[in-house]
Amino acid sequence: MPGEVKVPTLGESDTEATIGEWLKQPGDPVKLDEPIASLETDKVAVEVPAPVAGVMGAHKVPVGATVEVGAVIATIDDAQQAGETVQVAEREQPQPAEQKVAEPAPEPAANAGEDHTVTLSPAVRRAVLEHGVDPTQIKGTGKDGRLTKEDVLAAAKAKKEAPAPSVSAPVPSPSPARPEPVEGRTGERREERVKMTRLRQTIARRLKSAQEEAALLTTFNDADMTAVIEAREAYKELFAKKHGIKLGFMSFFAKAACLALKDVPAANAKIEGDEIVYHDYVDISVAVSAPGGLVVPVVRNADAMSFAEIEQAIADYGQKAKDGTLTMADMTGGTFTISNGGVFGSLLSTPIINPPQSAVLGLHRIEDRPVARNGEVVIRPMMYLALSYDHRLIDGREAVTALKIIKEAIEDPMRMLIDL
After folding, report:
1. What confidence tier does 219 reach under pLDDT thresholds 50, 70, 90?
2. Integer CA distances (angstroms), 51 to 14, 41, 293, in order
3. Which of 46, 112, 125, 182 could serve as a FRET partner for 22 with CA atoms 20 to 30 Å apart?
4. For the CA atoms of 411, 415, 417, 420, what is the dihedral angle to 10 degrees?
5. pLDDT band at 3 (very low <50, low <70, confident <90, very high)
6. Which of 361, 410, 243 is nearest to 311 (CA)?
7. What is the 3-state secondary structure (H, E, C) of 324-348?
8. Which of 174, 221, 208, 209 is nearest to 193 (CA)?
9. Which secondary structure element, helix H or strand E, spans residue 295, and what is its range?
């Protein structure tokens, strides 16, 4: 009897997803728990594991379709019963239009099997869709010849630099998720229409909702980064040797934020109906860049973590975001957010809160500026800090106080050690 492949539980608030990619085609051998499909939810990409071993059966829904939790999306046939079908498939090498490309006298490809099928990770698939390249024409440099994101980016760059093809040149069939650009009459002006991913749609909806529902206000301050820079310089080698992770700025700001949230609990609270929910713990959502947009995995119990534990947690989340392997559990919750636009060169911004949280700290680039110290003008490495908050819950005095505590802790890190 065939095994049914169903949409797994996605999370507390997610009841549906979109079929992003079929990782296995009908006739392909399938191992138990091997990923066979990639789903796009409102927050992350989720791989669907095979419930049984066997041979991939029929796809019940196409790429791009919206499916609910528990829905049957495919079947897996018994390997023995499907043996004859598999042998025919291997002999004849059927080539579905979306996954395989027929070539005269093909040469073995490092990133494809005998049937030229290319299996892509969610991160690589998003890069393929973003740059409009044909994955079957790219040589993979990853493990077992698999494509990496760098392979796709290199192919996209080469495609831009290559001369325009002649009219008689074959044109690959456009992917349903990324239509071919529409050219103007002269062939020089181009337009392109791409459907928003579920993640981007959710980001747009949540940010707009935050603007409409919350009474947003931002307070600013600046911090002299001299003490933090000197501390990092003095202890970075010992820190890396002992903990196996680099000492960055984020752990300093996370610990400084924990001090502020302890003294100003409203900045670590949320509104539910006509009630205010206060938390006696700090779960910090750290905004990191992913191929599909900004995501905010949660560093839980940051107030009880060491600098090394915070740095390791952030590094792990950053890698998972690049690989497209963040889970719903990684994204759930969070009582306060830190967003670092400085890594992209931002000097100043007004970050938007991440509902239902009531506040977000925005960090920016460090630059040398003249400041007054003891009646003299000196050059110091300065950073602008921004705290956006929901004025329905947090008063101006509380917001300014919280940001001032963060500033003082950064300028005098000893405060974080003696809880001042």
Report:
1. very high
2. 21, 20, 31
3. 182
4. -150
5. confident
6. 243
7. CCCCHHHHCCCCEEEEEHHHHCCCC
8. 174
9. strand 293-295
The Cα 249–Cα 258 span in angstroms is 15
CA 6, distance to chain mean position in Å, is 25
Which residues are known catalytic residues? 391, 395
pLDDT digits (tens, 9 = 90+) for 284-294: 999 887 766 67
pLDDT at 92 (0 to 100): 42
For 155-201, the pLDDT digits (tens) are 888 877 766 554 444 455 555 555 555 555 556 788 888 887 777 77
pLDDT, one tens digit per residue, over 223-241 is 999 999 999 999 999 999 9
Distance of alpha carbon 350 from alpha carbon 353, whole angstroms: 10
| Cα–Cα distance for residue pair 195/64, rounded to 1 Å | 10
Whole-angstrom distance, CA of residue 286 vs CA of residue 24:
34
DSSP per-residue letters across 190-239: EE---PPPHHHHHHHHHHHHHHHHS-EEEEEEEEE-HHHHHHHHHHHHHH
Name which CATH class applies to 1-92. Answer: mainly beta
Above 60 in pLDDT, residue 81? no
Residue range 215-418 forms a domain whose CATH class is: alpha beta
Query: Which residue in 7, 10, 13, 136 sits closest to 65, CA to CA?
Result: 7
Q: How far apart are the first and last CA of the chain?
A: 66
